[in-house]
Each structure stands twice: as C-alpha cells, then as structure tokens.
Design goal:
By secondary structure, the protein is of the alpha+beta class. The protein has 25 helices and 21 strands. A hairpin with a 6-residue loop joins strand 18 and strand 19. It is extended, with a radius of gyration of 34 Å.
C-alpha cells in the first residue's frame, strides 16, 4: 500500500513526502550505507549540475571524484563515526563557502542505513567576517585613539591607541563606563558638557582634557558622533581622540616668551626714549622680534587647524603647507579659483578640499573633465539639452551647471575647452545664465567655479587658442600645486599612505619599507608626480611576496633609476596606458577592462588615448 502511517494515525503518501522534500530550498542529498546515491532534492540536482539518471544508484566517488561538492570531509566523517558531522568548506570551482552537515541514520545493529547530506551557502557570512576582520585590524593599527560605547556610556570597543593614550591596557577599559576614568571635577567641567553637545547635535569636536591612569591631566582633541541603528534609533557613541599636549605646551611656551618679551620691550622703550638714534635701532629690532614671535604663534595655531581640516591631503613640506594656507584663505569665499599644476599633482584633491571647507560643502561637488568628452558632447554635458535638440536626444537632460546649482562645479583641464564654447562659459561666469541646447529659455544658476589645467593659459591666449577675457575672469584667485620633485619631504608619508591603501585593496600585509627602497623613491625624478608614485607602489605591492615592499622587482623603475635617462611624463603615461590595454586585450569598459584596472572613468581613459594618440594595433 503506497504511503505510511504517522504516529497520529494520519496516512502520509510517499508522493507528498517527496514533494515536501523537493520544496526544501537548500541542497539535500541522501546516500545509503555504502556511499551509493539514493536521490537529491530539486535544489540538490541544480547544485551538483547533474540529472537523476546520471547519479542514482552510483557511489559518490564514481560520480564526482575527490574534491567535488559531494565528496567532502563531513560525509566521510559521518560514515566513520556514525555521528552528525558539520564542516565549513570552500569550493573553488564555484567560488563559494558552504556549511556541510551529514546526518547518519543507524539501525539497531549499529549499521548505517542512510546518510542525509545538507548544504547551506555561507559565502556572505564569510565575506562579512573577512570585512569585519579587516576593519578590526585597521582600527587596531590607527595612531588615533578610537572607542565605541553604548548609550549608557559603557565601552564596547577600545583600540590599542585609545588605551595607550590613557595609560591603560585594552582589557582594563572594555566593559567599563567611560565616565569612570575621569575625576568628578573633570566630568562636571569637560566630559559631561562635551557629550551633552553630542546628544544635542548628533556630533561634536573640540579640545578637551582627559586623565591618565596615574592621574596626570593631558590636553586632547576629540571628535564624537552618535551611532544610529537601522530604524534610526540612537544605539551608541563612537569617538576618536588625539593627544595634543605637546602642541598645547608649545603654545604655552610661546605665550610665556611673548609676555616676557612684551615686558622687556616696555621697559626698554622708556630707556631708549632718552637715548640717541643708534639705540632706537635696537628698539626696532626688539619689536621685529616680538612680531616674529607672534607670527610663529599664529602659524602654530593655523598648522593645528590645517592638520585637522585638510586630512585628505598628505604631506608636511613647505610648498604643500603654502598651498594649504592658500586653500584656507579662499575656501570660505565664493571666489572663482584656478588651480595650476602638472598632471598627477593632485589638482582635483585641492579642489575637493576647497569645496569641503566652503559654505557649499553640504552639497556634492560636480566634476567635468573637459578633455574626456568629444567636442560635440561637451556643450550638452555642460548646459544640457532638450528632447530632439540633436540626433539621439530622445529626452530632455539637465547639464552639469544646472545640477551644480547651489554647489561647486570643478572643470578639470579647462585649457582643453573648445573656442566655440568659451564664450558660453564666459557668460555663465559673468551672469550665471545659459540655455540648454535646443531651447531659447534662459536658465540661471548659483554655482561656485573651480577650474584646473596643466597648460600655460597665458601662452594659449597669446596663440589665440584661449579667450583673454575668459582668462581674466578665471584668474581671480590662482593656486599652483607643486610637482612631487619639489616636495620630496612628503614622499615617505605618501608611500606609507599608498601602502596601507593597496594592502587593503589587494589583501596584502606589507609592513616593511627598506631604507634602500625609500632612498630610491626619494631620489627618483617623478615625471608623473603623485599619480605615478601611486601606480608604482601598487605595482610593487602586487609583485611583493612577503611583508617587505620591493621596487627592485619593477624593471622600468630599476632601469630609470640606473641610467637616469628619464622619459617625459607623456611617454610614461602612454606606456602605462598601453601596458594596461594589452593586459586587458584592449577592452576598455567592464569588470575586466583597462579603465577599471587604471581606476579611471572609461570616458576619461578614451580622452587620454585620443590626446596621446593611442590606437589599437591592426591585426
């Protein structure tokens, strides 16, 4: 009689059981006591990519061989121990992790009659576990202290830097209330008001005062924000801290010296009033000394401010500091800004720093690469078009000036702008007005303009390729980004930053940079500037097989350093792009395209190929 009687007396048909078995979403297989396959559910046949008639009645090893999804240690362990066995297994053939569980059924004589094998895909869990591990390592290697607390103030996480700054071990601080590490007076005057501001505004930053384990007070610069849950509820705080006690001490010393000098100047002034002209020269020198000391004090304050607000720009050389001071001057204004500098020096990074520190920073900056788009498309890209304005214009489209209303627009490679568009661009600069292609309606935009170029626009004006009136309108405030060869003191910091970045990208653990390697990097002439340095460090990380960075394994860099016959920047860029295209079979777009490998927009890569005359060779 088909079917079986349950304990409750209800007849369950075999067909119903098999239907339910096939409804299980995850792959399940059944084997007998001799490794022979009885059947799989519907998901199981899809998983093993075989038909029932190909596997039923056959031994697993005969069907799949060793190392296949059905031949894993969980199944063997269940047959061996007659116990439920579970293992995590990575299957390289399908690039996935599975939790494989084998359930043996043993009869009264201890013999296995059936084994149920179940597969659960845990790839996302493993990937999430890897991301969390990477994040934890990054936090633990941060030079700034980082801590996370719940809304009751109990520390949930403290990185080594946070504990070290306060003179504790990590395990002494985790699980404790953050308020317990401060004396009552400090809580009342500093800590509680700081966190009350965080609760009110959602985030807060500023100088504060903390206490070490031994009771020593020290000055800090702290930033804290409320952590939101998925439903928008407040679930905790995250804070970062930096010990600025040495900087504060330097300020106090400067102020002490200034006060002392002021007293000296005042006393000497009364004496010198009764003396001759020769003594008045000494008075003037003292006054100049006082002014210099005050300038040094201001410079120190500005240096602290710049270090806190331009953290994306890496370096501490004098040429770079000058650029940062100029950014601080122009960023709060709406002045049109022209950024000059060689390709690869970081002009876009300077533009983003200006925008980030402006009153328009709440809106994203809009970027247009004037060299990446064909002449017939750049006008539509800048000003937009109406439906039917030209062949292929199937619908109306806003231009970048319209999208950037209320924000900042960054026009990279402005020197590449066609002469015919320069007059339209000049009108936007002067009046904030323009029309879409195919429309007579005048639109207005409130936009702050930042432009950049590696060309000498004055020479372009003299040659008649750039409008003089447009040059005057752009040249309101000019910033020149120094080439990397003029800021060699920044190379060690840049190298460390790029090593950390590409370690994360390529899953490497480069921690050592030999002195010989760093000296070679410092001595190189860098025609491609920071972009060339970034590409070289990424290449070095890829070829390095241990924890040591090795540039000696890069033939081009080794040869350039050996013979000092330096190619031009255009030759370097041409060679780099062609090498990437050849590696990708001259495919530009997509996951396997050269644009992705070079970390460029496909349109930007095509623009550089046109400019450098790079064409795919004929077969």
């Amino acid at each position: 009689m088909p079917g079986a009687m349950s304990n409750c007396g209800v007849m369950v048909r075999r067909a119903d059981c098999e239907a339910l078995f096939d409804q299980i979403l995850e792959p399940v297989g059944i084997m007998d006591g001799h490794f022979r396959i009885i059947r799989y559910n519907a998901s199981g046949y899809g998983f093993i990519a075989k038909k029932p008639e190909e596997v039923i009645g056959k031994r697993c090893h005969d069907v799949f061989g060793l190392g296949t999804p059905c031949s894993c240690c969980a199944l063997h362990e269940a047959y061996r121990t007659r116990q439920i066995s579970t293992v995590e297994k990575y299957f390289s053939e399908i690039d996935s992790w599975f939790l494989v569980t084998a359930y043996p059924i043993v009869d009264g004589n201890g013999r296995i009659t059936r084994v149920f094998q179940h597969y659960r895909d845990i790839t996302e869990d493993k990937q999430r576990e890897l991301r969390l591990l990477i994040l934890e390592r990054a936090l633990n290697h941060s030079i700034d202290g980082i801590a996370v607390a719940n809304m009751e103030g109990e520390n949930q996480f403290v990185n080594p830097a946070w504990a070290q700054i306060h003179g504790y071990r990590v395990e002494e601080m985790v699980g404790k209330n953050l308020y317990s590490f401060h004396p009552e007076k400090q809580l009342r005057e500093n800590v509680i008001p700081f966190f009350n501001t965080v609760l009110e505004k959602g985030c807060h930053r500023g100088e504060s005062e903390h206490t070490k384990k031994d009771g020593t007070l020290f000055a800090t610069y702290m930033m804290a924000s409320i952590i939101k849950g998925r439903a928008g509820e407040s679930i905790g705080f995250v804070g970062t801290i930096r010990d600025i006690s040495e900087l504060k001490q330097a300020q106090r010393e400067l102020e002490k010296y200034r006060d002392h000098l002021e007293e000296l100047v005042e006393a000497r002034t009364h004496e010198l009033q009764a003396k001759n002209e020769a003594l008045s020269i000494a008075l003037s020198q003292i006054r100049k000394l006082k002014e210099q000391l005050e300038k040094d004090n201001i410079q120190l304050r500005e240096q602290i401010n710049h270090e806190q607000n331009f953290e994306e720009i890496i370096g501490r050389s004098d040429p770079l500091k000058y650029v940062l001071y100029k950014i601080g001057d122009v960023a709060p204004t709406d002045a049109t800004t022209l950024i000059l500098g060689q390709s690869g020096t970081g002009k876009e990074l300077v533009a983003r720093a200006i925008h980030k520190n402006s009153a328009r920073s709440s809106r994203p900056m809009v970027k247009v690469d004037c060299s990446a788009l064909p002449a017939e498309l750049i006008e539509s890209e800048l000003f937009g078009h109406e439906k039917g304005a030209f062949s292929g214009a199937h619908q109306s489209r806003k231009g970048r000036f319209e999208i950037a209303n209320g924000s900042t627009i960054f026009l990279d490679e402005i020197g590449e702008l066609e002469p015919g568009l320069q007059s339209k661009f000049l009108r936007v600069l002067e009046y904030g007005e323009f029309e879409r292609l195919g429309s007579s309606k005048t639109l207005r935009t409130d936009v702050r303009i930042i432009a950049a170029t590696n060309r000498n626009l004055q020479e372009e004006v003299a040659k008649g390729r750039f409008r003089e009136d447009l040059w005057f309108r752009l040249n309101v405030f000019t910033l020149t980004v120094p080439p990397l060869k003029d800021r060699r003191d920044d190379i060690p910091l840049l190298v460390e930053s790029f090593v950390a970045k590409f370690n994360r990208k390529h899953g490497k653990t480069i921690t050592k940079i030999p002195k010989k390697t760093m000296n070679a990097l410092m001595a190189y002439h860098w025609p491609g500037n920071i972009r060339e340095l970034s590409n070289l460090i990424e290449a070095a990380i890829i070829v390095s097989r241990d924890d040591v960075l090795r540039t000696a394994d890069l033939p081009d860099f080794r040869r350039d350093n050996a013979d000092k016959q330096f190619p031009t920047m255009a030759e370097m860029e041409n060679r780099h792009i062609v090498r990437a295209l050849e590696a990708c079979g001259w495919q530009i777009e997509g996951n396997k395209g050269a644009a992705r490998r070079l970390d460029l927009n496909p349109g930007t890569l095509r623009g550089r190929m046109r400019k450098l005359g790079i064409k795919r060779p004929q077969r």
